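Please predict the structure of the following assembly.
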Amino acid sequence: MKKKIVIIGNGFASLFFVQYFLVLPIFPFFAWFLRRLYSRYDITVIGNGDFIYFPAIPEFITGKKNKRDITINIRPFLKRRNIRFIEGVVTDIRDGGRTVIANENTYKNDALFLGIGPAFLKDEIPGTKEHTFSPCNGPDDMDAFMRQLATLEQGIIYLGFKLNKQDGFVAGRAGQMYECACLLDFALKERGVRDHFEIHFFSSNISPDETGAITDRMRERGIILDYGYEPAEFVAGGMLNEDGSFREADLVLYSPGITGSRLVRESCLPVSAGGQIDVDKYGQVKGLSNVFAAGDCASHENPPQWVPHQAHMAQLRSQAAAKNMKTVLKNTQPSKTYRYELSCILNMENDAMWLHMADDSKPPFWNIFPRRSKKLIALKNVFERLYLFYLRYL
Ligand SMILES: Cc1cc2nc3c(=O)[nH]c(=O)nc-3n(C[C@H](O)[C@H](O)[C@H](O)COP(=O)(O)OP(=O)(O)OC[C@H]3O[C@@H](n4cnc5c(N)ncnc54)[C@H](O)[C@@H]3O)c2cc1C
């Protein structure tokens, strides 16, 4: 009997999980045929069918990327792998993970993988939903921000983020917001209107006396650093400070801290202090058997404080989870853990920096690339094109 595997979500974590779970990472036509003839697993993915390449969203600001470029219909990728796709939203998980409910239908499994991504703490600062935009809400929200920006010839723009550190690591989007601020500076200069705008950057998670390479890049661009600041409320035309006074802002781009979604809170999944799925160092959901989670939906066991949620971390975690799931399906103890690594290229359009940290101090790509160079933008684009080509054709 084939083992039934159910995967929830079709984002980075789930697709990396598929890549590492199957014997072959790529499926050109002839391999697709072989998998039809022989496979040990009966795999079902439940999701919305659209993969979004989030790391490219900040580049909407310079007009270099748009929704069409970064959205991929994932059904052909799954079909090549003989994986059943169910379009739907999972509303409950029961029986210790063995039963999944989507579209009011029931899906039974021998093993379950959760790659359901983040939810954001939008209620922490009142007015977030009504008066801010966020690249984390996806392409449509970023497009709405760009439409508003296009109507302004002058003004005050605030960008900021908040982190959820309750699980002992960085559950939030700091690097991405720095990138948006630098790209905004570039785009306004290109339009010849930079002098008519104030760009402010705020976060209560950054100390007012913070120094370092990113802060230097922001200062070089004349971005006003409101480090340490957190609005009491976002309101029409600006923000209220703690003392009730008003700060004017024509536009706010803000990323709240990351937590777990309603499904995490309202199903049989264990919840971490930060509201995420509580997992161990093997990616196993604590207290449930044959249930794994990776990516932005899951906490870590004893993480280093600096580790963020990233597509790159989702890859490392999904790789371990895929190996461990195969192990537990053979009634053996899981043994594969994952490295902690922060790795991303901060694109400023006229400059770029490779931000990197690893628990084993290994440099990225054996240090063959410079840590600061405009050429890193081309490299970032190569990574993106390769991954999207893989999803589209292999
Ligand atoms: C603006 C921005 C820039 C970024 N830049 C970088 C970068 O440069 N480098 C980097 O490594 N990372 C970057 N990231 C972070 C990266 O995009 C995330 O870490 C990554 O998307 C996490 O993958 P995931 O699969 O956990 O979540 P997602 O990619 O969000 O996927 C979650 C999936 O689950 C589905 N889902 C959710 N709930 C349900 C449900 N109930 N039922 C069915 N399906 C469900 C969703 O539809 C989606 O398909 C960036 C993020 C943003 C927002």
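Residues 311-329 form the longest helix (19 residues). The first strand starts at residue 3 and ends at 8.
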